[in-house]
Amino acid sequence: MAWRVEENILYKYVQQQYPELQSEANHWKIVVPKPARRQLLARYHDHPTAGHVGVYKTYWKLCEQHYWPKMKDDVVKYIKNCTICAEYKPDQLRAAGLMGDRPKIKKPWQMISLDFIGPFPRSNRGYKYVLVVTDYFSKYVVTFPLRNATAKQLVNCIEEGIFLVYGTPQFNICDNGVQMKSKEFQQVCKDYRAQIFYTALYYPRANPTERVNRVIKTMIASYIKGDQKKWCKNLAAVTCAIRTSRHEITEATPYFINFGREHKLYGKDFENQVPEDAINANQLIEQRQIGYRKMFDRVRERLKSAREHNAQTYNLRRRHVEYTVGQKVWRRNKALSDATADFNSKLAPKYIGPFIIKRKTGYCTYELQDDHNKSKGMWHVQDLKPHYSHENG
Question: Sorted alphabetically, which Gene3D superfamilies does this protein's record hold (predicted)?
Fold first, then answer.
């Protein structure tokens, strides 16, 4: 007999593992009526003696004494909707977000990325920061030593040192620093019809200049010989070294891709040139145009191939995730430990929120807002996870 009733309580007979070690009573489980199930789930999951364990452990604890149809489904749903678990438990899934596509870049200075590095010790010339600008196509780098990393300094460097020298790019990639988000920078880009793409918060790998920053800092450190105030002494020289070094992806120097000839460090180098065959100006122009087309085609293919290879490797351990406008999500907590405030980040919630998806800003980035419609920044999907409620769970 699989069922029995005692003192108005319904029991179901459930075969147990290792029956030789179980008494007959252990096989009979209380059939829990629907109104009492939620309270029981709370006791077996939320109480400190339950410990907010996962589905497997919670389910089998319930199974020791209880039964109801589709009990495991209810356990899954209850834990999925648990706010404490959403806040404090790390996401065990593969990292979210596949590598997205960039705009199709065909020529030098069509897309640039920019970033500040510093603060460094104030140099003998009063500098503390460096603005680094990198051309995505040619990998050409321009550096500006600065006394202060302000929006005004940024605008002056970009307008006078980039737009009016190399031409205005179609796209600017930058992070969410206050200078980059300033009205002054946004206005100068608007005036020159240049689009701004902001990277996600806490996701520096989306900015190509981050790699250049590491190279520059390593080169600078190699020449200061212990006196860190001299960090900017060789800044122009190491920038020249980057521009005149053959790049692994393009298989050419950034200088050559921009100017069609290699950089000459010394004026005397012009005397060592092999005389060119007699050729008229029109033929020379046509010849160089053909050469440029071939070179740009080659660089485009190399950039495409490198990105496809990187995407293949990057996507191996990642999964595609999409959110919709208006959907609620949790975002990863980036708070740092602070001993003076008796705060340790290891004991803090792993996620905070929930927040609302305001809009999609990129292939894997979304702008969040709170319940008062206040923006909470742009975040990569790897730092987000869906919020579930008992209404939509």
Answer: 1.10.340.70, Ribonuclease H-like superfamily/Ribonuclease H
CATH no. for 327-386: 2.30.30.140
d(CA 139, CA 108): 9
Those residues whose C-beta lies under 8 Å from the C-beta of residue 245, and which sit 6 or more positions away, are 253
Burial of 25 from C-beta contacts in 10 A (0-12 / 13-18 / 19+):
exposed
- Taking the CB of residue 116, how many other CB atoms lie within 10 A of it? 21
CA 252 – CA 246 distance, rounded (Å): 5
**Domain ranges in the chain?**
3-81, 111-265, 327-386
Give CA separation, 23 vs 13, 62, 64, 66, 310, in Å: 12, 18, 13, 16, 60
- The answer to whether 242 touches 216, Cβ cutoff 8 Å, is yes
CATH homologous superfamily of 111-265 equals Ribonuclease H-like superfamily/Ribonuclease H (3.30.420.10)
Name residue, tokens 């589709």: 70
Residue for token digits 């600017």?
A: 172
Residue 172 in contact with residue 197, Cβ under 8 Å?
yes
Domain 3-81, CATH: 1.10.340.70
Q: What is the pLDDT along the chain (393 residues), one digit of tens a residue?
A: 588 888 888 888 877 666 666 666 667 888 899 999 999 999 999 999 999 999 999 998 998 889 999 999 999 999 999 999 998 888 877 777 777 677 788 999 999 999 999 899 999 899 999 999 999 999 999 999 999 999 999 999 999 999 999 999 999 999 888 999 999 999 999 999 999 988 877 776 677 778 899 999 999 999 888 888 889 999 999 999 999 999 988 989 999 999 988 888 888 777 766 556 656 667 777 777 888 888 888 898 888 888 888 778 877 788 888 999 999 999 999 888 888 888 888 888 899 989 999 999 888 889 999 999 999 988 989 899 999 876 554
